[in-house]
Structure formats: structure tokens, C-alpha cells
Amino acid sequence: MRVPAWLLPLALACGPRIPPAPAPVPEPTSPLREPARVGPIPADAKVQQWTLRARLDAATHRIEGHATLQWRNTSTVAVRTMPLHLYMNAFRAEDTAWMAEGRGRHRGNAPHSAGGWGYVDVTAIHRVEPAPERKAVALQYRELPEPSLMELDLGDAIAPGEGVELEIDFVTQLPEVFARTGYAGEFHMVGQWYPKPGVLHRDGSWHTHAFTYHSEFYADFGDYEVELDVPANMVVGATGVLHETVRDGDRKRLQYRAQMVHDFAWTADPGFLEYTAEHEGIRIRQLVHPEHAFSVDAHLQAQIAALDSMQGRYGSYPWSTITIVHPPSGAEGAAGMEYPTLFTTSPVREIPGPLRALGLRERVSGVFTTVHEFGHQYFQGLLASDEAAAPWLDEGMNTTSNVLVVEDGADDDGWVVRVGPHALFADDFVRMAQQGIGTLQAIDQPAEAFSPVVGGYGGTVYRRTAALMLTLRNLVGDAAFDRALHEYAIAWRFRHPTGADLEQALVDGIGERVTLGAADPADPATGTVELDVRALLEAGLRGTGEVDYRVHAIVNRSAMGHAGWHRNAEGVLVGGEAPTEPGADEAVVVLHRAGEMVVPVEVEIRFADDTTVRRIWSGTRRTHTLQFDKHVRSVRLDPEGKLLLEAVRLDNHRFAPGEDFDDGLSQPLGQAAETAALLVLTGVGP
Amino acid sequence: MTALRTLAGAWRWVLALWLGEVAIAAAFAFALRTHVAAALSDFALPDDRLLYAAAEFAGAHPQLVSGAIVGLLLSGLLGGVVWAVLAPLVIARLADGPQSAAALGGRWLGSLGGVIATTAWHALGRGLVLMGLASALAGMPGAVSAVALPLVWGLGTFALDLSRAQVVLHGARGTAPRTAAMAWLHAIKRPKLLALALALQAAQWLVLFAGLAAVVQGTGGAVAIVRSGALVAVALGSLRLLAAISAGPLPMAAEPDDAA
Ligand SMILES: [Zn+2]
């Protein structure tokens, strides 16, 4: 039925806005971009070769899986056992490590129904002997008391440099989604769904972790050939590229290929609309339900901005695809999670008309999730750090780079929230999160050390890390910091960097000590103030001190004269004049380091004659006194806002007693109050 | 046109009502401004990032935030009470033109109790209706609530005007809840008058919204714009009251034997 023309505006206003899909961009043939974009792959980077088969029963949300894993011992020690992660078992019962911490909830999402448990049940593991025998030998394995871990007895030892081929049969029951993976209605987000070995370090130590509330993942790179057998009506997205589709009645089999990734995730939902685009030869595909389709262009622009910024900073994105999954309404628990070449984002919130008319704008909801989750393609996808041992290396460095994406991509001043002419910037959110966070817990700790009961995980691991890194960048200069981080990103591509590796790269790239300037530019005798880069990282990453400076006092006074009794050359007391008239003007300024963390700070002094000078204070002692030979009107600490670690800024800018000044806040708040009152009075009055 | 002439004739009244509103709002704003300035002491914002500073300030002084909310509610309550007390005078003056102070005073004393009582019934009734509506619309798109709630609020305001006019001008019993309830029915049964009343209210909000926009945008003289907007809003509100007065005597079934 055609909608009458006069009803069209109403129909458009009430139904979801679905933008037309542009001409589809064909699937790339190779999962990797051209070799120059991929860059050198370290010889021992590829540890695994997977062949996975998965058959999804969409009604029961069960997956029958079969995996062939060829694994290589790249350590210097022979191994007889292999630990496996069974992440899905975190959602198997109330008494798993994950559930004990998460209490059945994740970021405010909980399953809608009781008993929507998820698990992975390994039913057989065989070791396949090399050709020509190819004999399959059943292996012994057992789940540990904490069921997200399994121990596999490999039978014969595997010597350094040798490999093993394993056949693993398993059944994965998806949970009702509330923590990244699972189903909601016909939507299936399939992550952490197959048994995954731990990472064997060169010294022969296995690195595995129980899956806990904050711990994410750690795995070796490998190549994947995956067959997904799903109902024919499903729209599927997955890590890597699709190279073949075979229809079989009411089902279809999709063949995916991925290279140099450390995980394989996929999604299937008959309700997905598809939007594809291409940027520098990378195919960007969005899978979205109609209710969120209005925002695909906003997400695409955010994705392109993130690609441009991050490729410039950390080297080329090596894979040929990016799939952005928009979880539908009811599947919010799946939102905001990264997997290699595929991530889930969150919805853009539409601002109500009246607020828009007032000038409220935001670039946070939805699009910032896309920037963040794409950022993980570098900070963990490519620089594959151990997210359980050092979550700050991926979440914190990613948040740092998210702020830079916003700054790089903005054709304006880079605001993220705007109310009329006033704006909040990405670094304001980083700064704001520092309030009260610093003294709670240090950044550089394993994920399991952060308890959801204590709270502050996001403020510490994500945003205090970003505040520390961006403070360092502001102090040493963008160029030095950006160069150091670039070197780090290039050196650790397709490898497993640790926190120590990043710190060393920063010290190497920036220098151990950086001269910030003369303590008093007008007086060379005051010496220079240096930043000790390693000490700043130490205090910031492993300390719990807050950065807080305040202007303690401004004293304007007259210099004392020489009236009174003094001895003359003969030792006789002479003089005894009455005190002289007020002497010349002088001023004393006292600065106070109120926080425990020491970091050099700039200070701007404005005199009564409206001239200004700048000084730098090392911040090492608790207080610092400055003297001047004229009266001071005001003193401003950190005038350029470089110290993003400092959340409390309302004690940074002080006026001398008796000065008449506009504090900048009471007038606008008063205006807002009067306006609000008149609105209310109109509501109740005539 | 007659309404505009009547309003012009009563310009001193409109001005007085407006001054009362501005005084209440300015007093509230003064109190808040003084508290904020005192809390900041010798300190000023470190830069021009007003939103960050406001958020930091609110975090550091939660008692000032709750104080501001309480102050706003008290301003509204005070305004509502003052308006309820003055309403009989204003209605009598608007309906019947200039009168002696003694005559006005007599009518005021005669209907004040009824007007306050019917205002209280309306406050209760409108609260219940809006709460019920809000919960009924809970599952619907936000746009539906955004249209329906202001419409019902506007209907309630006009019904209140009708009740007050009936009490002051036609001797309806303000203490009877039916006087309030029937006014809603009468408001709905007079779609032209209701539409006019709703349009006048919409114009009131628009004028103040423009003032709010000026404040948010930091337009020079924003406060003057807001205050002038409030004056226009008082004039528009008085026109709305005249619309209610023009409905004439309505069967309010205030008599007990009339109950059906
Ligand atoms: Zn993240």
C-alpha cells in the first residue's frame, strides 16, 4: 500500500530511518592486505593453524564444533601438557570465578531469563600422528575446578621447534547474552566459543588465566580456515574473509579464512541489514538492525577517522576487512567488544529536538564505541599483549589513542559534547575520571586484582593510563611522544609486548630525562627543571598518588625600610628614626603540592600592571615560594592544562586578596538559575 | 480584540505580576550566585572550559547542587501560592474592569478560600493524571510522551483557569472536588477555547525557551532577554485567563442535589 503523500512526514517520523544501502563492496580475496601494508611478520609469530567446523542450531543456540589445531612449540623447552581456555564455561554456573565476581551481571546487563547458561563441553581430543601414519590417538584431558581452564596431557613430549596436530570435538551452548557472547532472540554473537590454548613463552612457561570479571584474553597468532553451517536465512559476519558459500536446503555452509589473528569470532542473525564501504582497499561492513540503521554513516565516519589516525600513528592496518556489528535492542550485553577484524559497537543516542534546538550536541554515544573497539585492532589485535596480566596495555593505551583519534579527526576544535558555545573535550573525560581514582589502586596490576566491589577499574585502567600518557605527551611535546609510540607499535606488530617493553620504548624514544625549561627564564641561576620520564611512569603506573597543585597564598606588601637603631663603623648605635613611609611594592606567592604524585608544573603570574611571567616548579617539595618586586594580581598553575592527571583544577587559579575578579562560574550559574526559575514560575503562574 | 483591549487596560496588573516573578527568580539566582562565589573564595576557573569546571564544582559541592534544586522547587512553590492568592483579584479585575479597592477587596475575601481549595484539588488531580499517563506511555517511543505530557499539562492549566473563574465570578464551590473535575470536562467540550489556551501556553513556553537559548548560547544581555520573555509570558497567560473568563457560567454541579 502506498502511503499518501501528506502522511509521509508522519510515517517517516514514526518509523526507523533506514538509509539506502550503497552498492555492495565485494569481499576481498585475501584476509591480509598487500605485503607492504602487512609489514614484516616475525618468524616465530605464527604458532597455530586452525581448521574449525561449526554447526549452529539456531533454535537451541547450540554449536557442534570440530577443530583441527596444528600447534608449534616456539619455546626452548619440551612440553608434555597444554592448558586450554574454556572461556564459555564462565557462564556455566553460579560458582565459576567469573560469576562469583560478576554476580550474573556485566556492565549493567543481566540475562532476561534464569537458566540461560552457556558452556563448552569438550567431548574428545585426539593427537594425530604425522604422515604417513596419520593415526589418531585419544588424549587425556580434564577440566580444572575452575571450569574456564582445562589441562591436556599431550602424551609424548613436544620438543622445541616441533609441532603437534590435535583434533578437538566440542559442543558449545551459547548463553543468553549479557557479557559479550551469546544469543538474544535470533541474534547470535559467537565469541570465546572454542577451546583455546594458553600462550607458551620462550622460557617454557605457559600463560593462562582463569576467566574472571575483568580479565579478557591472550592468545597466539595463527591462521584459520572455518566452516560455518547455519540456517540459510542467516546474515553472517566473521573474522577474516568469506571465500565460499554452499547452499544445502534450508541451510548453508560458509567458508571463512583469516590470517595472523589470535581469535575467531562470528555473528549470525536473519534480521541484519548490510552496509559496506571501502577505505584504502579495506572493506568496512556494518551489520545492523533497522532500528539502528539511521546511524550507519556516523559509525562509518568514526571508523574512517580512527583508521586514518591510527594508521598514521601506529602503522598500516594489516587486514583487508573490518566488520562492525550493531547488537539489536535486547542484546545490549553484546555491545562494545573487540575481536580480530570484527567488533560490536553500541547505538547512537538521538538528542531530543528541544535540546538540539538549545545547542546540545554529542559525539560520544555509539561512535566513541566504534573508535574504541576499532582501536583494539591495534592495542591487542596487532600488539597482542596479555590482557589478563596487564589490562592497561590494551585498554589504557587504546583509550589514549582514542583521545588522539578525536583530536586528529576533528576539523574543528575536537569537542565531544557541546552545549552552545561550551564544550567538553575527549581529554576532559579522561581528566574527570581521575577524581578520587588515584588513591584507590595502581594501574599496573593484573585484571584479577581489580574487584568490581572496589570499583574504579575503568577510571584506573582505561582513563588514568590515558591521563598519564597524555600528561607525558603534553610535557615532553607531541612529536617526541608520538615518535616513541610509533616505534613501539612498529617493533611489536604481531608480537606480545609487555608493560616493560612499552616503558622501555617510551624511555628510548623520549629520553630518560627531558629538560622542560628554566625554572625562571629571566634568571639562569635558578637552573632548569627536568622531567624524569622513568620516574613519572613508575609513579603513574605503580603508584596511587594523585596529582593536585594549588595556589596556597598570594601576599602583596611593601618592602621593609631601614629605620631604627644600627651600629656604625665605630660600633656605636646610631639612628633610631621613625619607620619610613611604605616601601617599594613586593609580593610573595606560595604554591602547594597537595597531591602525593610529583610532576613538574608551570605557573603563570599576572602582576598588578597586567604583565605576566611564567615559571616552572619541579614539584619535589611540598611548597614552593616565589618572590617578586611588584604586586601580583593572580597566579595560575598549569595554565595550559597539560597535567591531565590533575582532576581538581578549581584551586589552580587564585586572585590576590582584595582583587575584584570574575570567577567565571557564579555568573553563568546565576543566569541559568534565574532562567530555570522563570520557566518554573511560568509553569505555575499566569 | 476585546481581550487585547481589556489586557491593555489592566497593564499595571500585568506589570505587577511580572515584577513579582522576576523578584522571586532574581532572589533565587542571587542566593545561588553568592553561594557559588563564596565556595570558590579567591579562586577562579583555570581556563575557559566552563562545562568541566561546572562538573568539578558540582562534584566538590553536592550540597550546593541539592540546595539549588530545593531553591528552584521553593521558588516554584512560592510562585504558585502567590499566584493562587492573587488569582481572585486578577480574575475580578480582568472580568469586570476597574473597581474600587473596597469592592475588589470584598470579592477577593469572598472567593479566596474557594480558589485556594480548587487549586489544591487541581494540583492533586493533575498530578494523578500526569503520573497515570506517564506510566501508561512508559513503553512507547519518547516522542509520544514528549507530545502527550505537555498537552495534558496545558489542558490541566486551562481547566484550572476555568475552575478559578467559576469560583470567583459565578459562585462555584471551590472546596468541592467536582468543581475541579468538571472543569476538565468543560475544557475538553470547548475545543476552540481549549485550542486558544493551548496555543497561548505554547507561545509562553516558546518565548521562555528563546530566553533559555540565549542564556545557553551566552548571548549578550541574555538575562534581559529572559526577563522580557517572562513579561510577554505573563501577558499571554493573562489572555489565557481571559479566554477562561469568556466561557461564562458553566454548570459545575456544585449543589449536592445536582449530583448524578
Ligand atoms: Zn576496550
Task: Give a quick summary of the entry.
The complex is a heterodimer of chains A (686) and B (260). Chain A has 686 residues and is an alpha+beta fold.
CATH superfamily (homologous) name of the domain at 27-267 in chain A: tricorn interacting facor f3 domain
Low-confidence regions of chain A: none
Largest interface: A-B, 66 and 72 residues
Bound small-molecule species? zinc ion
Task: Report the portion of residues of chain B in β strands.
Answer: under 5%
Extended strand count of chain A? 37
Number of helices of chain B: 9
Globally, the shape of chain B reads globular
Specify the helix fraction band of chain A: 10-25%
Range of helix content of chain B: over 70%
Q: In which order are the strands of the major sheet of chain A placed?
A: 5-4-8-2-1-14-17-16
Q: Overview of this structure, please?
A:
The complex is a heterodimer of chains A (686) and B (260). By secondary structure, chain A is α+β, with helices and mostly antiparallel strands. Among the domains of chain A are: 27-267, tricorn interacting facor f3 domain (Immunoglobulin-like, Sandwich), CATH 2.60.40; 528-663, Immunoglobulins (Immunoglobulin-like, Sandwich). An eight-stranded mixed β-sheet of chain A has the order 5-4-8-2-1-14-17-16, with no helix packed on it. A five-stranded mixed β-sheet of chain A has the order 19-20-21-23-22, covered by helices on one side. In chain A, strand 1 and strand 2 form a beta hairpin. In chain A, helix 4 (296-314) packs parallel to helix 6 (367-375), helix 8 crosses helix 10 and helix 9 (426-432) packs across helix 10. The longest helix of chain A is centred in the last third of the chain and has 20 residues, at 457-476. By secondary structure, chain B is mostly helical. Helices cover 82% and strands 0% of the residues of chain B. The radius of gyration of chain B is 21 Å and the shape is globular. Mean pLDDT of chain B is 92; it is low at 254-260. The interface between A and B is large, with 66 and 72 residues. Bound molecules: zinc ion. Residues 372, 376, 395, 398 of chain A line the site of zinc ion (ZN).
